[in-house]
Specification:
The chain has 282 residues and is α/β, with parallel strands linked by helices. It has 10 helices and 10 strands. The structure holds NADP nicotinamide-adenine-dinucleotide phosphate (NAP).
Length: 282
Amino acid sequence: MSLDTRIKLNNGTAIPCVGFGTYKIKDGNEAYASTKAALENGYVHVDTAAFYENEKYVGNAVKDFLSVSDLKREDLFITSKVWKTEAGYEKTLKAFERTMDEIGLDYLDLYLIHWPSSYAFDDDWENTNRSTWKAMMEIYKSGRVKAIGVSNFLTHHLNALMESEVIPAVDQIEINPGFMQEETVKFCQSNGILVEAWSPLGRGKSLAHPVLEELAAKYGKTVAQIILRWDIQHDIVPLPKSVHEERIIENADVFDFEISDEDMNKIDDMEPYGNSGHSPDE
Ligand SMILES: NC(=O)c1ccc[n+]([C@@H]2O[C@H](COP(=O)([O-])OP(=O)(O)OC[C@H]3O[C@@H](n4cnc5c(N)ncnc54)[C@H](OP(=O)(O)O)[C@@H]3O)[C@@H](O)[C@H]2O)c1
């Protein structure tokens, strides 16, 4: 297994098993440099979004990397997302065009609805999600994205899309030890929807947990590596973010060990310590 080991999505597109996250890297130079560092260190999968305001710099890093690399565009996997203010058919189509102008690539590998419309904000949330999804399906059929999916969708949001002509290929949700979202993961994995983990390191919050520190010492790895390996062994694609090259390298060095079933259970059974505070229904 390596960073380029791929998992087949429900439409046949293959997604690399770890992605490089780019949230909160708003500074253009930093977004460019860290994405380029990730690609130069073997990552072939990058996650961005219109909301991150860095699509242009991520796209530039991809193009510059490809101009000197033996790899081709099809060897990379690039994701972006439509932000929640752009929900609905027309707005989503327009948001996609803006994303493509910004990122400057011929196509995306994956395009996601960043957050669902929810009953907390929209009485007609199911229909709003369906009409956003209708635009996503149209974009998919145009061939300019290889797969479409959602993010932060819980089971009830997903249910509104499950009768569609195209079923979401991916649900990108927050997952870290202590916040496992079992119900959504179970629903996705039993319906052929691949789960990606955002904030796999709990934005750093997970890194000082004694259970994980003990396992890190046992396996001779870092806590970050234990968590990312735990995701992979759960068939979940983690998207670690770092602006530091040594951490970018560290987060990719997760293929030379295996966590035992017993230790996987120990992590699964960790006391919940809370999520980032954002629930799609709040
Ligand atoms: N769909 C969504 O709604 C959503 C929401 C949030 C995130 N995401 C995606 O998921 C990606 C990851 O989530 P995230 O950025 O929130 O959090 P994360 O990857 O869990 O954690 C990133 C934080 O951990 C630090 N870090 C990274 N590797 C480390 C290591 N080996 N040792 C110690 N510290 C380390 C980083 O610091 P430095 O950068 O300073 O190294 C940063 O502060 C995002 O970048 C984005 O692509 C999606």
